[in-house]
Amino acid sequence: MTPLPHHSPLAVHGLSVTYGDKPAVRAVDANFPRAALSAIIGPNGAGKSTFLKACLGIVAPLSGEVAFFGQPIAQARARVAYVPQRASVDWDFPTTVLDVVQMGQYRRAGLWGRLSGAARTQAMGCLERVGMAEFASRQIGQLSGGQQQRVFLARALAQEAELYLLDEPFAGVDAATEHAIMDVLRGLRAEGKSVIAVHHDLATVEDYFDHVFLINVDRIAEGPVKTTFTAQNLNAAYGGRLVASTPTTLIQAAE
Amino acid sequence: MTQFWAALTLQAGYNAALVAIGAALLGLAAGVAGSFVMLRKRSLVSDAVAHAALPGIVLAFMVMVALGGEGRSLLGLLLGAALSGGAGLLVMSWLTTRTRLAEDAAIGAVLGVFFGAGIVLLTVVQTMRAGRQAGLEDFLLGATAGMLREDAILIALGGAVVLALCWLLRRPMTLVAFDPGHAATLGYNTRAIDLAIMGLAMAVTIIGLKLVGLVLIVALLIIPPVAARFWTDRAGVMVWIAGGIGGAGAYLGAAISASAPDLPTGPVIVLVLAAGFALSMLLAPKRGIVSAAWRYLRLRRQFQQGA
Amino acid sequence: MGAEFVQFSLTPILIGTFAAMACALPGNFLILRRQALIGDAISHVVLPGIVVGFLVSGTIAAGPMGLGAAGAAIIAVVLIEAIRRFGRVEPGAAMGVVFTTMFAAGVLLLEQSGSAQVHLDVEHALMGNLEQLIWLRASGWQSLTDPAALSALPQELPTMALACALIAALILAFWRWLKIATFDEGFAQSLGIPTGALGFGLVISAALAAVAAFQAVGSILVIAMFICPPAAARLMTNSLAAQVWWSLLFAAASAILGYVLAGYGPLWLGAQNAVSAAGMIAVVSGVILALAAMFGPHRKGAQTV
């Protein structure tokens, strides 16, 4: 078997995951580009989140290989930041906004290492970048959905990673937050960092992303948005339920 | 062994036969009522209710003694149990709706605190009148030895009433347990039906206290439905399988317990039900472990060949 | 508050306080992880554990019985997880199946073995014997510096203090991991934190607290202390560290106030006999929780969007 490429921030070969005896992701190959914004797209239940989690080792894959920058996840953790779905955590947890952002520094600080004043300044800087600095001492339960999502993004920024994996970053957020998040992501790309996001809003794919990966349990297609985000591929991913000739009309049908 | 067959065929004496029939009806009712509780994912609420019954039992005893009675009427004690069990239920719902605490914390808090209060009262009774209080401790683990004929009849009747109510309310309870939102749009009063589900579970709990004891009674509500779930994906069918497992298990357990000394009825019934659960979990055709493992291995082979 | 207090009340109060705090510490995380009932399950399965420990070793020494109880707690946790995962049974029901079955087996073993005669009975297991853990050799406060008297301290005191210290040390050592894995398990895993092992360790430390506390204070107190002080503490603050401190304060207050009320309360009311200390401590913790639920500054959850 050929080794997975080093230049790709995330390369996957033959990845399969099952829940019980139902396949969630089947023998998927993928190869995401560096310094680009990539979207993972597919219908509900297509295995998008599962694919991300399996890459990160959060769910155990049945088979397959995953390489971050050519290395297994265990050796690449410092270079990868993950933003889980907002709904996956208990927002009633007794903690503050700044505290959540500083969780992104735990890996560097270790179990017992001191979080210095400099670390605090860095965390405040990350909050600044997502426009949440004034909320630093708020209890997290008092935030709106969009604000929660920005805090999650700030936590990922605090990790100072090279690859950012985001699971549905725009789900249930307001328009202002969506713009703020996109600004940050574009900024990351400008710094040469890579972003991969699970995305469900077909209408914004062409605006937001450079690279797209279509999945519906099986890998459907992968490539630059211009050539890959086509009616034919979308039809294949969405099970032929959408009958239309261009992405734009397809999107209307999907909604 | 002959003693066991005698008990199983109701030949081991009038009282043993009554206990076995009472246990069977109780088990049947518990399996059916417990199914709705399990579908509603509130199995352990009934554990808290059972433990919360203790202070009521002791208080009822004290009140009956204070009024000049003997204090051992099962009906009176169960009334006390129902009142304090109901109070426990109210406190749980108050904690979860009025504060940020989740249901599991509310269950545990009510269980521990009410039970603690019951133990405090029990020590009061013990010092109060040593002779007459005999029997209250039996409610902890259940006891059939000193059971009167009226007691057994009360248990059997109570089980039958719960069963009849479950049958009458089966449709709305299934709907609410499965999808409360949908049930509400159909015009059902989901709050009232929820209350009915918990009320029936509480009734089983209270009726069974004397037989199985308040620490273990919840097993009758939980184990049969969980076991039944392995055999079917249809709620309507599951309810009756659970009832069957509960009834048969309780009857068998009561018979085993009557066949030899030192076999306390409650724990034996629970262990028989647990055996039924273990068999179901292993061997059920679709959801059982053996068949699931086989399918998983087959899938895995396919994938590895494919990759 | 003289010699009599030191002799008859000091040690039970200290043991009760350490037991309450040892249970409350892991209880904080169990509550935040929606696993409060693991505490309930553990306290039930301790009984079969000590029965088996007794039957195997033939003595009622604390060592083998404690080992048996710890083993039972581990078996219970593994079984619950297996049933939940392989049987696709919801966690509450899976716990219910496991702890009732194990408790029933414990009672049956106890009855069958006739060990009920050797002061190992179910009631004892439920209620504990806190009142009997007195320091007979003490003659007053000065005994605290008298090596001969100190060597006659009830064995439960150093055991409980040690268990409490160990649990506190573990929670302190793994504080960051516990916090992050409790708040956001997926993120913790992406950092490489072994959340599975961490969760298991938390349950094991809860089991350790339950086992150590159990023989002295019984299982009611164990359940109440796992849940009531941390639950009340959650309603007092929005900071995890402050919550843990509050829970320790509430646990200690419950133990001290409960013991005093159980021992002296009936006398004040004109009765002659004390009531169950373990039961009263549980009741006091419940009163504290009720007060926190009515007046706690952070009793309401934030309305998440």
UniProtKB/TrEMBL annotation, chain A:
Gene Ontology molecular function: any one: ATP binding
Annotated Pfam families: ABC_tran
SUPFAM superfamilies, sorted: P-loop containing nucleoside triphosphate hydrolases
PROSITE patterns with a match to the protein in the record: ABC_TRANSPORTER_1, ABC_TRANSPORTER_2
Domain of life of the native organism: Bacteria
InterPro entries: AAA+_ATPase, ABC_transporter-like_ATP-bd, ABC_transporter-like_CS, Metal_Ion_Import_ABC, P-loop_NTPase
Keyword annotations of the record: ATP-binding, Ion transport, Nucleotide-binding, Transport, Zinc, Zinc transport
Residues of the ABC transporter domain: 10-242
UniProt similarity note: Belongs to the ABC transporter superfamily.
UniProt protein name: Metal ABC transporter ATP-binding protein
Automatic annotation (TrEMBL), chain C:
Organism of derivation: Roseinatronobacter domitianus
Pfam family, one: ABC-3
Family membership: Belongs to the ABC-3 integral membrane protein family.
Listed name of the protein: Metal ABC transporter permease
Subcellular location: Cell membrane
Keyword Transmembrane set for record: yes
Record SUPFAM superfamilies: ABC transporter involved in vitamin B12 uptake, BtuC (SSF81345)
InterPro entries referenced in this protein's UniProt entry, alphabetically: ABC_BtuC-like, ABC_TroCD
Keywords per UniProt: Cell membrane, Membrane, Transmembrane, Transmembrane helix, Transport
Domain of life assignment: Bacteria
Membrane-topology descriptor: Multi-pass membrane protein
Transmembrane feature ranges: 6-25, 37-56, 62-80, 92-110, 160-178, 190-214, 220-237, 244-262, 274-295
